[in-house]
Amino acid sequence: MIWLSEIIDFPPPELANKDGVLALGGDLSEKRLICAYQNGIFPWFSQGEPIIWYCPEQRMVVFPKEFTFSKSMRQLLRKKQFSITENTAFEEVIYHCKNIGRKDGLGTWITNDMEQAYINLHRKGIAKSIEVWQGDQLVGGLYGVEVGEVFCGESMFSKISNASKLAFLHLVKNGNYQLIDCQVYNDHLASLGAREIPRNQFLKILKT
Known about the structure:
Helices cover 31% and strands 28% of the residues. The protein is built from seven helices and eleven strands. It is globular and about 50 Å long.
């Protein structure tokens, strides 16, 4: 396994193992995170573990131009009981992504250091959020990192049914991105229209 040094650099993505792990160690500095995302690499680890950097062979993505809204999705978007904003409550969104209870346990990987690192990226205009409100209450949202016309999604949360789905649909619909990176497969993302593409195809899109 490759351990990173103080130099801001990563090994070639094709050196990742079968689980997608490319390297260990390093830090969560702004420069390293920016370098990682520009090269299709993301951190994913739990408290007490070294930082683990991933670049999986298959990438879960959404192409907004190919996305087809189902009848139920269109009905959801037409509902007037919610309002949606962008980048107005980033710190609240990542806090809820970190702390909200999940049946599958996902979300626990957002450590205190990870939380602060993405807040720092947001202050630089690189990490973005989408918020779903019911009245003045934040009931759902998502956040991620912007790399040109690619949005690299990190996490989402819902306090009420479909709130995170509304944030995701807004992200697809807003026209800012040619690709939304969902990183790795899960059934929920697949139900929203995400699919896997080879790493080389993903990296080619990312570089352009």
